Structure formats: C-alpha cells, structure tokens
C-alpha cells in the first residue's frame, strides 16, 4: 500500500487547535484555582465580609424578583378587588413551591454540595447536580399535577367564591404550568450557591426579572398585537420567565465554567440521601409557614372580601423579608456547610450567630417602619377604607415581631448547613400550631376578632425564634454531620 493511500482522507494538521470540551475547561488551571480560592474564603476569610459578599448578589436579585411580584399585584389591582383577592388566594401556594424549592430542597442541595467541597469530594459535588435535576423534575411534576387536580377544592376552602375563585383558578393554571422550570432554576441555583458561585444564578434571575416587569402588563392589558389576557397574562409571563431561565442555567452548567458541571453520571442512592435528609425536613419546614398563611388566609376570609384583600396586600410585605433572609441564608448555608465538612465547628458557630445578628437587625428595622406607618405600604395598592383597615391592623400587630423572622430563619439556615435541621422544624411546628391552629380555632369557635388572630400570628413568630435560639445555644444543631 502506498504512503498516499495510508493517509487519512481528511488529515488534521498537527498544529490545528482542538475545540475545548467541557472537561478541558473544568480541569483548566484557571477553573481549579477559582475553586480553591472560593473554598479558602469559606474556611479562612473574614466572616462578615465573606458572608455579605456571597449574600449581596442573591439579595439584590431576589429583591428584584419580589419587585416583580409587587408590580404584578399593582397591575392586577386595576382589574378590581375580586381579581386582587383571587390572586391573593394563589399567592401562598406559589410561595410554598418557591420556598420548598429554594430554602427547603434547595437548602439540602446547597448543604450537600458545600459539605462535599469542604471535605474535598469534588466528584461528588459535580454528581450532586444531576441528582438535583432529577429531583427538580419529580417535584415540579408533582406540584403541577396536584394544583391542577385540587385547585378548586383548595382555593374554595380558602374562601374563594364566584369571580374571585374563577380568577384564582385561571391564574393558578398558567403559573403552575411552569412548575418544573421553577424547580430546575431554584435547585440548580442552589447547587451553584453551595459551591460559592453566587453571581451566575443572580445574573440569570435578574435579567429575567428585568424582562418580566414590562412583559407582565403587556400580557395582562394587551399591547399592540398582544391580546388582553387579564390575570392569565400574569401567569403566562411568570411561566415563560422560568422556562427561559432554566434553559440558560442548564447550558451554563454543562459548559464546565460554572465551578460545578452537569454531566452524565450514575445515579447513587447515597447522594439522593445526602440531599433529602436535609432537604426533605427543610421542605417540610417550608410547608409550615405557608400552611400557616393558608389557614390564616382562610380565617381572614371569614371576615369578608375586603379583609381578605387587605391581609393579602399587607402580608406581601412578609415576603419581602424572605428574599432578604434567603439571600443572607444561602451564604450562611454555604459557609457553615463548608466549615462543617472541614470539621471546623468553632468557625461554623461564629458564622451562624453573625448571620442571625444581621438578619434580626434588618427585619426589625423593616417591621418598625411599617408598623408605625402602614400607609407607606398599603397606599400603593388601594384606597378602599375597609381594605386599608384590615391591612393596617396586620402591620401594626405583626410588624414589631419581624425581628423574630430574621433571627429564626438565619439560625435555621445555619442548621441546614450543618445537616441537622430537626429543631428548626420543631420551631416551625410551634409557629404553625399557635398562628394557624389556635388562631383558626379562636375565630371559628370563639368569635375572635381580626386583631386577635393577628396577635396569635405574632406570638407564633416569637415561639419560632425562641426555639431556634435555644437549640443553637444548647448545641442541638452542632453535631458534626458525616
């Protein structure tokens, strides 16, 4: 055979550059050095400045997300009180899914990734991404199916009647059509935050929020060739936003540049267990405040449509606290988890208390401002005197207890980082029993006033903070996770 015949048909010059694969990028010196610096900052960097550096991108983005929700409430308010009440019925269920995927199961993902990195198990950290994606698909499908099947019973049980119930069902059907993308976005973002990469998920979510704010009114009221869709338009906008964000994050995490890499690997029971042993209790803990809100919403509904609308507007302020505390809490989960993985318990404790101090201070300030001047918030949404009266009562009674939300949530996040979350779960149970259980019973069987119901909500928050503080002081959450 001649030399010419032995040559390949399409020879590749020896000097021709080969396109870099995700594996090449992942193992490049630049990426490896970035991972090492991130781990070193968790283990040795100044506690407060490192925490704030990790928290700020997430806080700013989640504030933007919350701003989208507030803007949506503002847009829907132009459709009338019944439309506003209908969206208020759906909002606790939507927040339940958001909190379960972000702070609940997402906390389990972030904790597992952070502990793996802290212990030097980088292959496990990458493998956890695929396991998180599988869980996202399963939980997202479960939410879509459940809400579509039982929505009429759920929203009717919360006090929805007539047009308000029809509005709730229409809005809900479109919002929860995008449940799987919501779970994908939140669990992948949690994995990245567990690895100390807070900027990428923040940028994706922020850009989506920037697009969503003008898109939502265009779909609600119509614009040019876009038809008027009413409350359905708000739901379509939310679902479309999460679908786009999910596709962007999936592509990014397959690129090898994320610090974690989504790639094909064998599914292992131990990695599912590592996520779920923290995440499932965290998810149940996420259910508790939302179940509390659902039952309280039902109790408020007994006082009439105006009371329900006022409570819905006022309690939206509660959810401003959640992104603030969640942003700070994700930093605490990552830092505590990394230090627990490295068996540095003294530093893990300092991180927990520093987070609680910052969280309590911020939420106390917010509560004080709006308890003293509830109109600063409520007047943005309505001028109906009956609606304003209900909302003002809520903020004046519950606002002074907002500090308990900050302290309790941050110590709960610290427990997630350490992999020991049973005491925060007990704290959430106490809050639920007092606010929802006793509150509902008092209204239904003893004719308690709206103010009394809100006082029990405040007492539940105090119990939540007291138990998490006691558990942390007594060392119940500081056993070293395996």
What does this structure look like?
This protein has one domain. The longest helix has 38 residues, at 81-118. The model is unreliable at 1-32 (pLDDT under 50). Helices cover 79% and strands 0% of the residues. Helix 4 runs parallel beside helix 6 (162-175) and helix 4 (81-118) packs antiparallel against helix 10 (269-301). It contains 18 helices and no strands. The protein is globular, with a radius of gyration of 24 Å.
Radius of gyration over alpha carbons?
A: 24 Å
In quaternary terms, these chains amount to single chain
Would you report the number of β strands?
Answer: 0
What profile does the largest beta sheet have? none
* Count of domain modules: 1
| Gross morphology | globular
Structure summary:
The protein is an all-alpha fold. The chain is built from 18 helices and no strands.
What topology does this entry show?
Elements: H1 22-26, H2 29-44, H3 47-77, H4 81-118, H5 122-157, H6 162-175, H7 179-194, H8 199-221, H9 231-254, H10 269-301, H11 305-315, H12 318-341, H13 345-372, H14 375-378, H15 385-398, H16 402-418, H17 422-446, H18 450-473
Helix pairs in contact: 3-8, 3-12, 4-5, 4-6, 4-7, 4-10, 4-11, 4-12, 4-16, 5-6, 5-7, 5-10, 6-9, 7-9, 8-9, 10-17, 11-15, 12-13, 12-16, 13-15, 13-16, 15-18, 16-17, 16-18, 17-18
């Amino acid at each position: 055979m001649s030399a010419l015949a032995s040559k390949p048909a399409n020879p590749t010059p020896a000097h021709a550059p080969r396109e870099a694969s995700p594996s090449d990028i992942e193992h490049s010196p630049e990426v490896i050095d970035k991972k090492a610096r991130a781990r070193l900052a968790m283990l040795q960097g100044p506690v407060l400045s490192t925490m704030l550096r990790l928290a700020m991108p997430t806080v700013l983005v989640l504030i933007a997300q919350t701003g989208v929700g507030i803007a949506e409430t503002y847009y829907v308010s132009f459709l009338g009180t019944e439309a506003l009440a209908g969206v208020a019925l759906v909002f606790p269920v939507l927040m339940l899914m958001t909190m379960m995927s972000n702070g609940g199961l997402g906390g389990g993902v972030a904790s597992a990734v952070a502990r793996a990195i802290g212990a030097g198990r980088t292959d496990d950290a990458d493998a956890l991404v695929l396991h998180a994606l599988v869980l996202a698909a399963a939980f997202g499908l479960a939410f879509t199916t459940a809400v579509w099947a039982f929505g009429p019973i759920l929203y009717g049980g919360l006090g929805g009647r007539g047009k308000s119930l029809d509005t709730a069902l229409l809005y809900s059907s479109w919002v929860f059509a995008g449940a799987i993308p919501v779970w994908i976005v939140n669990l992948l973002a949690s994995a990245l935050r567990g690895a100390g990469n807070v900027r990428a998920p923040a940028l994706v979510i922020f850009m989506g929020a920037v697009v969503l704010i003008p898109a939502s009114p265009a779909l609600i009221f119509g614009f040019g060739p876009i038809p008027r869709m009413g409350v359905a338009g708000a739901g379509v906008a939310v679902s479309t936003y999460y679908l786009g964000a999910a596709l962007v994050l999936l592509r990014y995490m397959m690129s090898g540049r994320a610090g974690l890499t989504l790639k094909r690997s064998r599914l292992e029971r131990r990695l599912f267990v590592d996520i779920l042993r923290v995440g499932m209790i965290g998810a149940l803990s996420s259910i508790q405040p939302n179940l509390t809100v659902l039952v309280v919403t039902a109790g408020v509904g007994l006082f009439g449509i105006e009371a329900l609308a006022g409570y819905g507007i006022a309690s939206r302020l509660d959810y401003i606290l959640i992104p603030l505390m969640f942003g700070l809490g994700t930093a605490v989960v990552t830092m505590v988890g990394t230090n627990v993985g490295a068996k540095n318990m003294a530093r893990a404790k300092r991180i927990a208390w520093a987070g609680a101090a910052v969280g309590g201070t911020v939420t106390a300030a917010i509560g004080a401002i709006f308890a003293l001047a509830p109109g600063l918030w409520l007047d943005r949404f309505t001028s109906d005197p009956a609606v304003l009266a209900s909302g003002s009562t809520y903020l004046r009674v519950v606002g002074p207890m907002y500090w308990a939300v900050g302290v309790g949530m941050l110590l709960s996040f610290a427990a997630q980082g350490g992999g020991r979350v049973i005491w925060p779960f007990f704290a959430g149970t106490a809050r639920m029993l007092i606010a929802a259980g006793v509150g509902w019973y008092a209204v239904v069987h003893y004719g308690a006033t709206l103010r009394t119901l809100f006082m029990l909500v405040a007492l539940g928050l105090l119990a939540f903070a007291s138990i998490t503080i006691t558990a942390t002081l007594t060392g119940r959450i500081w056993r070293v996770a395996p």
